[in-house]
Amino acid sequence: MSDFVVYNYPTRICQGFGVRDQLAATLHAAGARRPLLVTDRLIKMLPWFEPLLASLADFDVRVFADVWGNPVETQVIAGAAAAQAHGADAIIALGGGAPVDVAKAIALMQHHPGKLFDYEDGKPDARPVDQPIAFLVALPTTAGTGSEVGRSSVISHDISKAKKIIFDPRLLPNVVLADAELTLGLPPGVTAATGLDALTHLVEAFLARGHHPMADGIALEGVRLVAGALEVAVDFARRLDDGEALSEEEEAVHRRVRAAMLDASMMGAVAFQKGL
Question: 142 and 192, same structural domain?
Fold first, then answer.
């Protein structure tokens, strides 16, 4: 893999098809030896997962895949225990918004006392985030929440299902490996739902009150990308789901619109800081 781009806004983002191959080099550069890979149960069954894991043969990797649905506190507790038992010195977030948010919360709880919701944003007596947070690298596999470029973790209460926001700039992953190839196999329903999530973030950011011309510009460009890519991506996903084969030209278009949706997803998460 050589055809990828790197930029540093709002964090270090390495982007391009196949850029996941840079994961080992990213961990080496951070001095990590014992990463915890946080993902969900379905991703472990995808054909590219084992090759990705094999690329980390130089590391002592533990996989934590007990993430599903809207993430809840007990998933974070279990993941933090796994990180502690493994002696994890880095966290790999692999998945959509749920695994990424859980990975952020695990990174927080490794060295912070108390319970996760003690750090809830806006809580009058919230504990401060004042201890080190493990090196965090994110590989998004959906184009929706944009959590990989966000500074918060949204975790639900197990019983009430109330969503709690843990917010701190240090929860922003240190590196994002944005590989749209990981989104090529998304089914049509997930493609549509996550794409509409990205669109919602973009529209909300633009309509939010306040003066933030940079966020407005990012939001408008993101809306333009979604308008030109989402419907096409869903159509390709539907055809592939039905067993159709794409022509070489169609495959090139499919890759282009998937990359555009991944761009739009990250742009939405960056732009909606306007409303915070």
Answer: no
Q: Which domain holds residue 248?
A: 186-275
Closest-CA residue to 5 (of 263, 21, 14): 14
Integer angstrom CA distances of residue 246 from 29, 47, 249 = 38, 19, 8
Are residue 150 and residue 261 in the same domain, yes or no?
A: no
Tell whether 159 and 46 lie within a shared domain. yes
For 58, counting Cβ atoms within 10 Å of its Cβ (0-12 exposed, 13-18 middle, 19+ buried), the class is: exposed
For 62, counting Cβ atoms within 10 Å of its Cβ (0-12 exposed, 13-18 middle, 19+ buried), the class is middle
Q: What is the pLDDT of residues 233-247, one digit of tens each?
A: 999 999 999 999 999
DSSP category for residue 221: H
Task: Decide if pLDDT at 1 tops 50.
Answer: no
Peptide bond into 10 cis (omega under 30): yes
Q: Do the Cβ atoms of 90 and 137 come closer than 8 Å?
A: yes
Give the end of a domain, one of 122, 151, 182.
182
User: Residue 273: its pLDDT value, please?
Assistant: 85
The enclosing domain of 11 has a CATH number of: 3.40.50.1970
For residues 81 and 79, give the distance between their C-alpha atoms in angstroms, rounded to a whole number.
5
DSSP 88-147: -SEEEEEESHHHHHHHHHHHHHTS--S-GGGGBTT-TTPPP--S---EEEEEE-SSSS-G
- Over 70: is that where the pLDDT of 53 sits? yes
Q: pTM for the whole thing?
A: 0.96
**23 near 55, Cβ under 8 Å?**
yes
* Number of folded domains that form the chain: 2
Task: Return the exposure string of 249-275: e unless at least 16 CB atoms fall within 10 Å of the residue's CB, then b.
Answer: eeeeebbebbbbbbbbbbbbbbbbbbe
The first and second tokens of residue 156, run together, are 């639900």
